[in-house]
Input
Amino acid sequence: MIFGDANQLRIRDAELSDAAPVLAMLNELDHETRFMMLEPGERGLDVARFAGWLAELRMRGDCYLVAVQGTQVVGFAQAERGTYRRSRHCAMVVLGLLPSARGQGLGTRLLARIDDWARLSAVTRLELTVMAHNLPAISLYAKRGYAAEGVRRHSLIVDGRPVDELVMAKILPGSAPD
Ligand SMILES: CC(C)(COP(=O)(O)OP(=O)(O)OC[C@H]1O[C@@H](n2cnc3c(N)ncnc32)[C@H](O)[C@@H]1OP(=O)(O)O)[C@@H](O)C(=O)NCCC(=O)NCCS
Output
């Protein structure tokens, strides 16, 4: 008998039933790395609230992907569009992977899936911020076509110290404005 590879890394759209494992993964990331926005414990553990946020995101047609290994959620990528007509073509991207899932091309695959979603959603600008010393992430974004647009000086305080962020963005082919 042939079994599928239960440990294979897969990427799929998040379901509402993923809310608890995704929130647990995000909390784990907040503890493990200083490169995400939230401090350890700041995100909270309110699964119902997180599920409600996820439901609204899905209703708006925005994107939330999970990377899954076996039954464990090991990473995510999200893209949220602007809420006004003049900014609907623009989406803010965030992603993160647990350490066990890094260095295997998963970040690359997640960003490729975000590109696919953008093309189907008439999104022509993907943007993000990244701490200026997060070299692995900056390298990944550059490889996926994101260009640095500027520096937000001292935009964050991490462990009591000011940290700069890079603004990076990628323009996808789309209809030109009038
Ligand atoms: C940044 C992150 C998403 C990268 O994901 P990943 O799956 O490990 O990246 P990939 O395996 O797809 O690698 C793609 C490219 O990213 C860069 N990269 C990834 N890990 C790297 C590392 N440890 N050092 C330097 N460059 C690295 C390389 O350019 C790599 O290309 P290569 O394989 O040809 O060298 C992951 O390290 C992560 O989740 N880090 C913690 C959270 C975080 O920083 N999130 C981003 C916040 S803005």
